[in-house]
Amino acid sequence: MNAPDTNKNSNTTPVQAPVENSSKRRGLLIIATIIFVIAGLVYAFWWFTVGSHFEHTEDAYAAGNVVQVTPQVSGTVLAIHADDTEMIQVGKPLIELDRADAKVALEQAEAQLAQSVREVRVLFANNAPLQANVTARGTEVDRAKADLARRQQLISTGAVSTEEVEHARSALQSAESALLAAREQLASNKVLTDRTSVEQHPNVQRAAARVRETYLAFARTSLVAPISGYIAKRSVQVGQRVAAGAPLLSIVPLNALWVDANFKEVQLAHMRIGQDVTLHSDLYGSDVEYHGKVAGMSAGTGSAFALLPSQNASGNWIKVVQRVPVRIALDEKELIAHPLRIGLSMQVKVDISQQQGSALTAAAPVRNTSAFKTNVFEQAGKEADQRITQIISNNIAKNP
Question: What is the pTM of this model?
Answer without folding.
Answer: 0.75
